[in-house]
Amino acid sequence: MAFVNGVVPVAASASVHRRAVCVRMSEQDAALSRRAVLGLAGSAAAALALAAAPISPALADGAVSSATKYRARNLYGSRIFDAAPMIEKLVAAVNAKNWDTVESIVGKKGPLEDLKNSFTLFATGAYPTDKLVQTDLIGNTAVIYEMAGILRKAADQQDQKKALKAVNELVKSYKEYLAAGELKENPFADAPGQAWSGDFSPLRKTGKSPYIE
Fold first, then answer.
1. Disordered: where is this region (predicted)?
2. Phi, psi values for residue 193, rounded to 5°
3. Contacts of 180 (CB under 8 A, 6+ apart)
4. 48 FRET partner, CA 20 to 30 A, in 61, 72, 142, 185?
């Protein structure tokens, strides 16, 4: 290799190699760009297809499984129906002016207050799509607990007249709740064998037979 005026000549093969490398890198970049564009296009197409897909009928009408309804009926409905003796005891206490017993039942820490969630969960769980029945149940629940508040005040004041009026309204709403929710005595409650309501039987937690059909 000759040196001319102190300049080192560059071999032609090196120049060709650099051009080849540049060409190959450009081709790789182009391939990557094409893949990225195709990937974005595919994602966009999938998103559009998902958006255009019809809603499943099971989701569109807010369908709830039968198991969910049975669970609400068996767990919460049985507790509500089993409150009947407590309601009768409350009526007897008002008639006898037994204010301590009245307070023990309708007090903030009493058994009636403990049932408040059961009334609500039964209404929304057993009748999730039947808004007419659900509204009826929730309305009766509101009256029951409004009357319970009046009974607390009547017990403090030992006002039997006020207490009698409130307890009568409470009993009326309780009976209407049972009727609207179709809560009745279970005809198989005393029958031997497997629990009639299967996995959702309240027997698993309470040891009592559910008084519902």
1. 187-213
2. 110, -170
3. 133, 136, 137, 140
4. 61
In this predicted model, what pLDDT tens digit does every residue of 149-185 receive, in sequence order? 999 999 999 999 999 999 999 999 999 999 999 998 7
Q: For residues 87 and 112, what is the distance between their CA atoms, to the nearest angstrom?
A: 9
Q: N- to C-terminal Cα distance for the chain?
A: 107
Spans of the chain below 50 pLDDT: 3-4, 6-8, 10-12, 14, 16-17, 19-26, 37-38, 56-61, 210-213
Domain 65-206: which CATH class? mainly alpha
Extents of the domains making up the chain: 10-51, 65-206
Element (H, E) at 9: none
DSSP string covering 65-123: -HHHHHHHIIIIIHHHHTTHHHHHHHHHHHHTT-HHHHHHHHSTTSHHHHTHHHHHHHH
Question: How distant, in Å, are the alpha carbons of 72, 93, 178 from that of 207?
Answer: 17, 28, 22
Give the containing element (helix H, strand E) for 128: none
Give how far the C-alpha of residue 5 lies from the chain's centroid of Cα atoms, to the nearest Å: 90
Task: Please check whether residue 141 is in contact with residue 76, taking contact to mean a CB–CB distance below 8 angstroms.
Answer: no
